[in-house]
Amino acid sequence: MPNFYHLLMGVLLMLGLTACTARGQQPAEVSGTVLGWTCREGLIIEVDQQYPIGRPVCTTHENHRDAIVGRNAIAAVNNADFRRRQGQRLRFRYAPADSVAGRVCPGWHQRQPTGLLYFTIQITDSRL
């Protein structure tokens, strides 16, 4: 009987180590172009087409002069850096985000969500 116990514990240990490794993996690194910024959803990025992680978007910009239009766009909800310029190239790591919880926007900002998928990003290179 002790052999069965040791075997069972060994299997459980290996499964636990495999799960830890899978959860500890680094997020994927991709590149894209800044489309714009909204108060509600942060930086809007058109991800390069070889990384199909985004959704189509067409929305008016905060200042109502420009529209944000893309085919493979994501919302970087943890990045409120509105100083990044439209057209700027970025390389970044990403991970899915549940929501835009915690963002407080004045009443004149866009109130309707764009329908984009939310991600948190870590910019690794903005000199592309």
- The whole-number mean of residue pLDDT values reads 75
Supply Rg.
Answer: 20 Å
Extended strand count: 6
Major sheet: 5 strands, mixed, barrel
Helix content: 10-25%
β-strand percent reads 35-45%
Given helix and strand content, the structural type is alpha+beta
With helices defined by DSSP (H or I, 4 residues minimum), what is the helix count? 1
**Shape call:** globular
Q: Strand order within the widest sheet?
A: 1-2-4-6-5
> Please, how many domains?
1
Unreliable residue runs: 15-23
Distance from first to last alpha carbon: 62 Å
Helix and strand pattern: HEEEEEE
Signal peptide: 1-24
Keywords: Signal
Task: Supply the key terms.
128 residues, 1 helix, globular, five-stranded mixed β-barrel, alpha+beta, 6 strands, signal
Question: What report would you give on this structure?
Answer:
It is a single chain. The protein has about 130 residues and is of the alpha+beta class. It has one domain (about 30-125). It contains one helix and six strands; from the N terminus they run H-E-E-E-E-E-E. It has one helix spanning about 1-25; strands at about 30-40, 40-45, 55-60, 65-75, 90-95, 115-125. It has a five-stranded mixed β-barrel with strand order 1-2-4-6-5. A hairpin with a 3-residue loop joins strand 1 and strand 2. The longest helix has 22 residues, at about 1-25. Residues about 15-25 have low confidence and may be disordered.
